[in-house]
Amino acid sequence: MSSLRGSAASDGSADVSCRTEDAGDSTTLLYSVIRLIFRATGFVFYATTECHGVEDFPAAGEPTLLCFNHGNGLADPLCLIKATPRMVRFCAKDTLWKVPIMGTLIRNSGAVPIYRQREHGDQAKDRNLEVFRTVIEVLRAGGCLGFAPEGVSRFLPYMEQPFKTG
């Protein structure tokens, strides 16, 4: 198996396999650098940020599923990276692995690709079976997984909509 950081397969898809020992809370160097940079420069994007309940965030080693509204592209995961005390392994659409620079960042930050039906049709279901195995490995190893149930970024006026059910 390859490491959790993943790689691009010959067909351009993202590799979702991970070793169990890499699935938990061990922070990658790139993730640490991203966190440091955003903590130091986050005020450029947001004059103030408020984080409530961080003291209640599950301790390292406790399986954690962090669900969040996804109102604004990369800003949402970056804010969560800044605010949370643990490494969050985000689920993201697999097409991001193919974007120059962003793909490298995502691949090396421990993210897990999600295959959407709109891009992969009927193959999405089969490809996501491996994704679910990876997700289970991350949680069994006590990792923290970030997941946006809506599955897409939305801009105003949708940003204040409640989570969808289902």
From TrEMBL:
Annotated region (Disordered), positions in chain: 1-20
InterPro entries registered for this protein in UniProt: Plipid/glycerol_acylTrfase
Record field: compositional bias (Low complexity): 1-17
Recorded GO MF terms: 1-acylglycerol-3-phosphate O-acyltransferase activity
BP terms from Gene Ontology: phosphatidic acid biosynthetic process
Domain Phospholipid/glycerol acyltransferase stretches: 64-166
PANTHER family: 1-ACYL-SN-GLYCEROL-3-PHOSPHATE ACYLTRANSFERASE (PTHR10434:SF11)
Record-given protein name: Phospholipid/glycerol acyltransferase domain-containing protein
Organism: Emiliania huxleyi (Coccolithophore)
